[in-house]
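Two records follow; treat each independently.
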Amino acid sequence: VDEAAAAAAANGKDLARVLDLKRFEPVLTFHFRAGTFSVSKIKKNCLMNIWFWPLTQWRLPLKCTDAKLSDPNPGLRVLCDVVAGNYRRCGDIEKCSGDRLVPYQPHVSKVSIQMPDNMNEIYGTMVYRLKFMNFFVPEGGFFPRRFQAQIRKEDGSKPYYILSTGKYVSMTPAPTSILARLLYDGTESLPFEGNPTFMVYVKFVLPSDIRGLIRKPPAEYQRPASSVGIMAPEGFRVLGIFQAPSDLGRTKLTPEGDGAAALSTIE
């Protein structure tokens, strides 16, 4: 995986390489092809799996149907058609499902498809397309990344696993998934009341996991660290950023001897 490109995309430096899913009516399209020679065909009834990363973010429908079929409760809709290849057809998908990777958990991040029985074999320069529709995107969003896919023979033998290429896929988090607030110790007047300078402590919960810096990673796992930017309101200037005191957030007493209500439930 091109980690440097992913980092540039995440920082907004190369947005042309990122597909940002739309929160309403999202569509994901995958182009796929087989090997160069006819001995490495993708044949009818082959088994395909696609993993939607991050695995703990997605809650895809368990039910999955061909988009060409009429169904009042279709679940995940999948359409398979031909991009490159004369007189070819992908056919009608009859076996498809969303799968839980961990039983009894809400996360559904894997799609299993059996290629159509009436599909023409694909190899060489032929390209087919799978289009996924009618699914919910993760509320927390996620940073630009690749998806994974695997193709196997009908009996489950000869699996071939690959990362997606082309654009990185990302999702902007919903506003309601970002949690942040100012921490106030109750011993001084609130900021923004005529003071030229003041200290503000911010506690926030990110909607998506970020990775820390690995100082001595193996050569094959070199990657940049994630970073977080906080923009000051218009008209204000940040004089410095400091580590919060270790006791910040613990219950303190006001001059009157009462517990600071604002912090009574913060640990």
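The next record belongs to a different protein.
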Amino acid sequence: MVTLLASCAVDPGLADGAQGPLLIVARGAPPPVVADVRAAAVDAPMAAAGLRLCQYDDGAAQVEGVDAVPASGCTAPNSSAPGRDFMTGGLAHQAVQDISASFLGGYVFGNACGLGGGQDERLMVYFPEVAVLTFFLSQDTRFPQLRQPAWVLGSRMFFSGLDGSARFNRPLVVDEAVPLTSDLTEVNISNSTVQVSGSRPFIAFMSENQGYFGAESYNKLQEARRNKHPEQRLAGDEEYSFEKQVRAWYGAVTLTSYATEMRPVLKELV
């Protein structure tokens, strides 16, 4: 909250009583059943998906024959600092993916002291605007959390150093290059033209196979990073089967999960 107030104090978009950029929250429909996802995949051409690979500290040899994410969005970490991955960002309109529990916000509000071990809790600190929206839009009866899947458009990452591994998240370092006006994009929503920060669209959805390999270890983690852990490759209807994770991802990103008015906005900003 203090970080948000400090950022508002220096945001030129709020000078002289101006409205400033708009934040948009779009909550999606509940995840579809697996059969519907399979049906949608029948006619979906993978060649048009534009898939690219980021090998971020996975310990594997370079994969040949697959387009790589450019260095501006994927560089390896070293022993003392993170590189670039989907969390640190670097590509225009690249979404930050919060792998949440059933509610966005984790246990950072009113439940745990400190950040805990989760990505979800850390993102609430690095994206204070998301934290505030989660708090005030919550429908949870116990903790201030926001149901997933959800997009938060226009939020900004005010600290640097957080990658997908969260190994380098202390001390908190303010990102002096955080865009306040340079990334504003005009979008039309409900017949109104508004300005929205477009550099770090934020999406949260629940990982349905979280904790699937039980007791954690370095070897298991390296297997999982290369998608070679046996539990990742379960093809049936087991609790942690791969189809459930595909269902969670599809439900979170497909435009039909969101209100009609939001679909052109998402296509413009993400």
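Discussion point: The CA atoms of residues 104 and 146 lie 5 Å apart. How would you locate this feature using only the token line?
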